[in-house]
């Protein structure tokens, strides 16, 4: 799929949250939330009511006799759901298109926005059932909002694996990340040694970026420079442990177990090759 390095979960959630508002707005604005199919066909929406007699239809504001407490509560929740449907795709779009925005906290925020949108719409849908008047039945405008509700829930569910498994440091899933560095290691064996945590990968001993060496300036300060090439790096001698008088001795022989070993005439520059990252 397009949209750069964002995951398939995020891409599908973004697409779904672009479709859901369209369905919701159509249902929100039309006059077919409930309908009475008697001699005079009366269709009632959230804001307008339509009466049709012998093929002639008249649209007017919803009569005050229809507006009970549940009706007004439904209007309030549907308006809040509309606002959420307008802003949530924007936040998801930022997450998908902007690599710098793909952080753990922002992914959680996008997931919460999807579920909050669904919760507001679900509450309004339930209240409308109680607002339904006698001899009226549910109509297709209400059905469109239910489809939008289902899509919002699906978008939130798609963000669950996004939050659980996504590696936000490099913008890849762990399996994609492993596959990438396995390919790199086959191209240049030994140059890529993985040593990473799930949230912040790190790498050790990459010859493409030679480790620095240390030297002492005339002022007594330690100055770091880079080794010239990998040959110099590999030619450094291994450190050699020698007897330490402070260690525990058995039969006058040190076992080197009770303190750190010392090294015989090995400078800090040579120890650089065995630095642990």
Automatic annotation (TrEMBL):
Keyword Membrane: yes
Location(s), subcellular: Membrane
Pfam family name, one: PMP22_Claudin
Ranges that cross the membrane: 12-34, 79-99, 106-133, 139-160
Biased composition (Polar residues): 244-260
Species whose genome carries this gene: Mytilus coruscus (Sea mussel)
Biased composition regions of type Low complexity, renumbered to the chain: 209-230
UniProt keyword annotations, A-Z: Membrane, Transmembrane, Transmembrane helix
Highest taxon listed in the record's lineage: Eukaryota
Protein name in the entry: Uncharacterized protein
Region annotation (Disordered) ranges: 191-260
GO cellular component entries: plasma membrane
């Amino acid at each position: 799929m397009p949209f750069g390095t964002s995951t398939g979960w995020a891409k599908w959630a973004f697409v779904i949250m672009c479709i859901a508002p369209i369905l919701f707005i159509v249902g929100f604005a039309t006059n077919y939330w409930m309908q009475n199919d008697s001699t005079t066909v009366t269709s009632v929406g959230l804001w307008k009511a339509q009466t049709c007699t012998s093929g002639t239809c008249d649209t007017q504001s919803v009569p005050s006799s229809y507006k009970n407490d549940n009706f007004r509560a439904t209007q309030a929740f549907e308006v809040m759901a509309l606002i959420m449907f307008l802003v949530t795709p924007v936040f998801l779009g930022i997450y998908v298109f902007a690599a710098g925005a793909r952080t753990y906290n922002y992914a959680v925020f996008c997931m919460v926005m999807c579920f909050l949108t669904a919760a507001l719409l679900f509450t309004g849908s339930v209240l409308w059932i109680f607002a339904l008047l006698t001899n009226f039945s549910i109509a297709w405008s209400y059905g469109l909002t239910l489809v939008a509700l289902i899509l919002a829930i699906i978008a939130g569910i798609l963000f669950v694996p996004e939050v659980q498994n996504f590696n936000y440091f490099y913008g890849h899933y762990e399996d994609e990340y492993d596959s990438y560095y396995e390919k790199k290691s086959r191209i240049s064996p030994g140059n890529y040694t993985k040593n990473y945590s799930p949230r912040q990968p790190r790498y050790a001993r990459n010859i493409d970026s030679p480790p620095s060496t240390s030297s002492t300036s005339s002022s007594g300060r330690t100055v770091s420079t880079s080794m010239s090439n990998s040959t110099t790096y590999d030619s450094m001698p291994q450190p050699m442990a020698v007897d330490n008088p402070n260690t525990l001795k058995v039969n006058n022989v040190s076992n080197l177990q009770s303190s750190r070993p010392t090294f015989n005439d090995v400078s800090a520059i040579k120890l650089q090759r065995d630095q642990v990252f």
